[in-house]
Structure to design on (371 residues):
């Protein structure tokens, strides 16, 4: 291969190990020769020479929610772009024994560093009590000043969604929150409440779902008991789907009678009826930043990151959002900016919708949290 590329064996080794000082033209010539010869580096052999496995471990809480799954996919893509493999360990539970067992599995495989993808507060609380000797990065953290933390600006995204509805003219906006114990749930509640209060408005009592469309459907029927509500901000798109179902079932039109905003921008959200206004999380950029920061801690160069993604968050700072500015790959944590995606499920309020039991003259019933 060195003969095919017209370089020395040492240069080929340098290309495989990826030092940043190598000239781009030389690197491209070696990579072209590798493609022609169908050469693939032997990770085991490289590990013997460099004492590194070129493998990133990812510790993941079990679950099928879109956000964690999309984050894992983004991390895997960014790692492959940087020439690293990914070894995933799923947590069977969130107790210390299960976490220690999962970490031990990754350490036994010789990973060079670990990304902790555990959006539940209890999981990261347990991890903080363990001593992790390898470089690591967490997606979410209980502390804003945690130098290992990276995440999408959840609070800022919730404020964007709420602000969108307020600017359309809505003043009675209900938030259907996620389940207790999730970082996203708490952050999105903060963003909703902070934006309502910044407009001099009292936030509505919260409803709580469990990320599923079924819980959104149940919340939708509770919302219909209060005829003054004109808009709903759902903490994820799946629950928003259940809301749309409940409203349509009761003869209400979206957005003519009620506006709905979701969060995540799942692939199906443009195909809801009506297409869902939502907050898009930049998962590819989150994955690149996680991998770039971890490799910087390891002492390797990582994938390129989009500085504008962080700068946008700083420029669009929202009161109470906790948005951080851009940071170096191994520096203080910087949230990735979310983006509002307006679609047909939101519009200015046209009228107060009728309650199904309006003829009875009964006062609106209380709307207790869903569990």
């Amino acid at each position: 291969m060195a003969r095919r590329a017209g370089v020395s064996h040492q240069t080929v080794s340098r290309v495989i190990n990826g030092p940043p000082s190598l000239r781009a033209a030389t690197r491209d010539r070696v990579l072209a020769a590798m493609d022609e010869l169908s050469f693939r580096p032997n990770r085991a052999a490289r590990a013997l020479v460099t004492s590194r496995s070129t493998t990133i471990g990812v510790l993941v809480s079990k679950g099928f929610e879109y956000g964690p799954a999309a984050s894992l996919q983004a991390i895997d893509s960014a790692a492959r772009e940087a020439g690293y493999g990914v070894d995933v360990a799923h947590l069977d539970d969130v107790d210390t024994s299960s976490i220690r067992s999962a970490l031990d599995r990754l350490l036994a495989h010789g990973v060079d560093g670990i990304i902790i993808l555990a959006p539940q507060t209890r999981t990261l609380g347990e991890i903080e009590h363990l001593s992790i000797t390898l470089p690591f990065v967490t997606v979410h953290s209980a502390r804003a000043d945690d130098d290992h933390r990276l995440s999408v600006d959840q609070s800022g995204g919730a404020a964007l969604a709420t602000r969108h509805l307020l600017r359309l003219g809505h003043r009675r906006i209900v938030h259907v929150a996620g389940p207790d114990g999730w970082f996203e749930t708490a952050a999105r509640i903060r963003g909703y409440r902070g934006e309502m209060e910044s407009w001099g408005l009292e936030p509505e009592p919260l409803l709580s779902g469990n990320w599923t469309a079924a819980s959104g459907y149940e919340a939708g029927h509770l919302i219909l008991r209060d005829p003054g509500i004109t808009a709903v901000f759902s903490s994820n798109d799946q629950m928003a789907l259940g809301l749309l179902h409940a409203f349509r079932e009761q003869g209400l039109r979206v957005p003519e009678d009620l506006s709905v905003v979701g969060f995540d921008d799942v692939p199906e959200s443009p195909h809801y009826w009506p297409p869902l206004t939502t907050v898009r999380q930049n998962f590819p950029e989150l994955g690149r930043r996680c991998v770039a920061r971890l490799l910087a801690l390891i002492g390797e160069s990582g994938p390129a990151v989009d500085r504008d993604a962080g700068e946008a968050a700083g420029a669009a700072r929202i009161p109470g959002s906790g948005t951080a500015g851009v940071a170096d790959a191994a520096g203080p944590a910087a949230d990735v900016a979310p983006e509002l995606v307006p679609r047909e499920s939101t519009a200015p309020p046209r009228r107060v919708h009728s309650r199904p039991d309006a003829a009875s003259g009964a006062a609106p019933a209380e709307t207790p949290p869903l569990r």
Summary: Residues 43-50, 311-333, 353-371 have pLDDT under 50 and may be disordered. Residues 66-81 form the longest helix (16 residues).
